[in-house]
Every structure is written in structure tokens, then in C-alpha cells.
């Protein structure tokens, strides 16, 4: 309570309570001293006419650390008059006080009302509204730390108003905002490029698969297409529920592979979806062997993966099937072909069932696949894996860039509010004079 009394008696934070050193012509003050604060309200939901107006009404879920140009809902002038909702001017800075969005911020670029979970700041002449916005954005973790409650903490207007803020001279505030926005713009440009790499990954992967299918990876003008049946030894659909029941599953046994366990040519079994060795022996006909292809026959078409030594002996689940190729055909190659765009399209067009997409043996056997010699298959697999590895490296690099950009933005804000962006002019008047004028 002593701190609040000090804040009301003086706009300046006592030296012993100042969070960190700042330039000499800056001063530490409180958020209550640089803006007029308020909050909104929620008109009665029972009166439908209240939500049939043209006044934008902002909720905390719409705060995304960006300017706000529109709202999800609108209220009427009657709603405004008959509730605690208030109309705030353009350039009002908003901070979310409750729940999962606590600490999120926004700037109104329209006149709007808000609900009661929004703390709204109308900047005084002592502060640039964008400086206030970026500072509030930088303080999200601090606000969360000050929050009270259970899994979803809350902060109050009083907590926000008594929160400290470093205040530079007004001209320096403008320079800091300009510098932040210039640096952020460059980072956003890099972010767009990195996101484009991520967004295009699957498309580029599909293009590589198409070239494998057509023979272009080997420089061939075209490949002969044959039905999958021509190169298959056996196809076996996984055991029906009549022989594999829920009570057969144990923890720590032999994995049972269902379609949901197959992603991007990889198999990720669940620890609880396993069976005992005794049950596996009973279902020996459904056990996977190195060189097989396991394929999902329900739901998403084209899910497949080659069986390696690691998965040897695992069990094909009810929603999957085993494709055992003839000698001379490589599972790693034809599994990729099954996952290619053209194969998925064929399976989508020919699958059966209205409630859930389903594949039967007839459809799978008729699937068109390219015919290559074993040597050609091996060469294509090597080229494909090399190209895919490069694409994966580019994807990983793009993901790292996106992570770094968020960290870099946080670092820029930290430096900005310590006076470390190199824009401060020591000859400018002490910022405290701005506050003295307002007393």
C-alpha cells in the first residue's frame, strides 16, 4: 500500500524502486501518470437490439498486439447508454486484464467500445501513444507475473496503473517508435520469406514425387505405368475387430499400427496400443516384415510407410493393410509413390464408403504405379532422398528463423526501453518536466 501512496503523491518512482538504470534525461514514472485509464462493459445479452448497432465493440480475444481496425461485434447507442460500456477514441491503447489473453495489447484505429476485461489508456500530452503501446507490449510477462488467480490469472486496472514506465523526452519517444517500427519491418519481411519456405514445403515435395513418378528424376522422357497388382506378392487387410478387441491391448507390448500412427513415411506407435507376444503369435499372419509397406485404408488417403528392421514383427492394425512386394521392388520407393499426389487423387476418386473413406483390395491392386528396374528404383530413391534432405534443411532453417524473429523483437523492445537503440540526445530537456506541467 505504501507504494500506491507514493505514486499518488509524486509522479516519480523512488530511486530504490526503479527497475533498471536509464539515460539521465529520462525519468521513471507510473502508467497512471501518462494516460487516462478506464475499462468497458458488456451490454445485456438478453436484449438482442443492443447487438444490432454500428458501434464497434472490442473483446480481449480480438487483441493481438496489433492495431485494431474492426470488431467482431457491434452494439447500439442504447446499449452504450444502458451499460458500463464506453466509447474510446482513436489511438487508445488497450491491455487485456483477464484469462488466457492477459497482457495482450492493441491500439484502436477506430472509435470503439470494449468489454470490462479491457484496460483502456488514452495517452496524455506527455507520451506518444505508440511508445505506450510498444512498452505495454514488452511488459506482457511482467503483467502475467503480477496476475492473481488460478490457471488463468487476472490483473486489475490498479495493478496496471501502478506499473512503472521509463519516460524519455517526447522527441526521443518519437525516435524510439520510428526505430522500433523500422527494425520490425525488416524482421517482418524476413518472416514472410521464411513462412513462404514453410508454406511451399509440401508443394515442392509433391513436385519431387511427381518427377519420381514420371521418370524425370532420371532424365527419362516418361515411365511405363502398371497396376500395383503387377508388382505385389500379397496384400493383406489388417485383422477385423472380431479377432482383435480393445481388451487385448496392453502397455509395453508389441505395437499395433493404425492409420493415425503413419505420418510422412514415418511410423510413431502409441505405448498403450500394443499386444502381448502370445496375442501376436495368434495373429502371426498380420505381422509386418522388413521390406513391407504398411498403408492406411481408412480416412486420409495415401498414408503409407516402408517397414524397416525397427518395425519388423510389429502388427498391422484393423484400419491398415500390408503390401508385400515381389522380389526386385523396393518398399522405400513404392511407399513414396503411394503417397504422391497422383496416387492420393486416384485413391480419393475410387475409395468406397459414404461415412468414412475406405479402401478395398480391388482398388489398391488397380492403383497405377511406374515400372522401373531395381537399379532405377535405387537411383531414384537416392536422388529423391538427397533432394528431400535439402528441402528439409531449408524447412528447418525457416522454422529457426521464425523462432529467432520473435526473440529478436523482444530483444529490440528491451533495448528500446533502456535507451540502448542509439537515438537518445542527452541535450534534450529532462522528461520529468513533461510530468511537472501536468501536475
In short:
The protein is α+β, with helices and mostly antiparallel strands.
Lay out the secondary structure:
Blueprint: H1 2-9, E1 27-30, E2 35-39, E3 55-58, E4 66-68, E5 73-75, H2 77-81, E6 87-88, E7 93-96, E8 105-108, E9 112-114, E10 118-123, H3 129-138, H4 140-146, H5 157-161, E11 164-167, H6 170-199, H7 201-214, E12 224-227, E13 232-237, E14 254-257, E15 262-263, E16 266-267, E17 274-275, H8 277-282, E18 293-296, E19 304-306, E20 315-316, E21 320-325, H9 331-339, H10 341-350, H11 361-365, E22 368-371, H12 374-416, H13 432-438
Parallel strand pairs: 3-9, 4-8, 14-20
Antiparallel strand pairs: 1-11, 2-10, 3-5, 6-9, 7-8, 7-10, 12-22, 13-21, 14-17, 15-16, 18-19, 18-21
Whole-number average pLDDT? Answer: 92
Based on CA atoms alone, the radius of gyration comes out at 32 Å
CATH class of the largest domain, please?
Answer: Alpha Beta
Low-confidence stretches: 1-8
The CATH topology of the largest domain is Adenine-n6-DNA-methyltransferase TaqI, Chain A, domain 2
Helix content: 25-40%
Architecture of the largest domain in CATH?
Alpha-Beta Complex
Name the CATH homologous superfamily of the largest domain.
DNA methylase specificity domains
Write down the overall geometry. Answer: elongated
Structural class, from helix and strand content?
Answer: alpha+beta
In DSSP terms, counting alpha (H) and pi (I) runs of 4 or more, how many helices? 13
Strand content: 15-25%
- Number of E strands: 22
Largest sheet: 5 strands, mixed
Count up the domains: 2
Cα end-to-end separation: 22 Å
Amino acid at each position: 500500500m505504501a507504494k500506491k501512496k507514493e505514486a499518488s503523491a509524486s509522479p516519480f518512482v523512488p530511486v530504490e524502486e526503479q527497475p533498471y538504470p536509464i539515460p539521465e534525461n529520462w525519468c521513471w514514472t507510473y502508467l497512471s501518470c501518462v494516460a487516462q485509464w478506464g475499462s468497458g462493459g458488456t451490454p445485456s445479452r438478453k436484449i438482442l437490439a443492443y447487438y444490432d448497432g454500428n458501434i464497434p465493440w472490442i473483446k480481449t480475444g480480438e487483441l493481438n498486439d496489433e492495431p485494431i481496425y474492426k470488431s467482431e461485434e457491434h452494439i447500439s447507442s442504447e446499449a452504450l447508454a444502458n451499460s458500463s460500456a464506453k466509447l474510446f477514441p482513436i489511438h487508445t491503447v488497450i491491455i487485456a486484464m483477464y484469462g488466457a489473453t492477459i497482457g495482450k495489447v492493441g491500439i484502436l484505429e477506430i472509435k470503439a467500445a470494449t468489454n470490462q476485461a479491457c484496460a483502456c489508456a488514452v495517452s496524455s500530452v506527455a507520451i506518444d501513444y505508440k511508445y505506450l503501446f510498444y512498452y505495454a507490449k514488452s511488459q506482457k510477462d511482467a503483467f502475467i507475473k503480477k496476475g492473481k488467480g488460478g490457471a488463468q490469472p487476472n490483473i486489475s486496472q490498479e495493478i496496471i496503473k501502478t506499473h512503472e514506465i521509463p519516460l524519455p523526452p517526447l522527441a526521443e519517444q518519437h525516435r524510439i517508435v520510428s526505430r522500433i517500427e523500422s527494425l520490425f519491418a525488416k524482421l517482418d519481411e524476413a518472416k514472410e520469406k521464411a513462412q513462404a519456405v514453410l508454406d511451399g514445403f509440401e508443394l515442392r515435395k509433391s513436385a519431387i514425387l511427381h518427377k519420381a513418378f514420371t521418370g524425370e528424376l532420371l532424365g527419362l522422357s516418361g515411365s511405363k505405368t502398371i497396376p500395383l497388382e503387377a508388382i505385389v506378392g500379397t496384400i493383406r487387410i489388417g485383422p477385423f475387430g472380431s479377432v482383435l478387441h480393445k481388451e487385448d491391448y496392453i502397455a509395453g507390448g508389441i505395437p499395433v499400427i493404425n492409420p493415425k500412427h503413419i505420418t510422412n513415411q514415418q511410423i510413431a506407435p502409441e505405448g498403450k496400443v500394443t499386444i502381448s507376444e502370445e496375442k501376436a503369435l495368434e495373429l502371426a499372419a498380420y505381422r509386418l516384415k522388413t521390406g513391407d509397406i504398411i498403408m492406411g485404408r481408412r480416412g486420409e488417403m495415401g498414408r503409407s510407410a516402408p517397414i524397416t528392421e525397427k518395425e519388423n514383427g510389429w502388427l498391422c492394425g484393423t484400419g491398415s493393410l500390408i503390401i508385400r512386394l515381389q522380389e526386385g521392388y523396393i518398399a522405400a520407393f513404392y511407399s513414396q509413390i503411394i503417397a504422391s499426389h497422383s496416387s492420393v487423387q486416384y485413391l480419393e476418386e475410387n475409395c468406397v464408403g459414404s461415412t468414412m473413406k475406405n479402401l478395398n483390395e480391388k482398388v489398391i491392386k488397380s492403383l497405377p504405379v511406374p515400372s522401373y528396374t531395381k537399379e532405377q528404383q535405387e537411383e531414384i530413391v537416392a536422388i529423391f532422398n538427397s533432394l528431400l534432405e535439402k528441402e528439409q534443411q531449408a524447412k528447418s532453417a525457416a522454422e529457426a528463423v521464425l523462432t529467432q524473429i520473435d526473440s529478436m523483437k523482444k530483444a529490440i523492445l528491451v533495448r528500446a526501453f533502456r535507451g540502448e537503440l542509439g537515438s537518445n540526445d542527452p541535450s534534450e530537456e529532462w522528461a520529468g518536466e513533461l510530468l511537472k506541467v501536468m501536475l
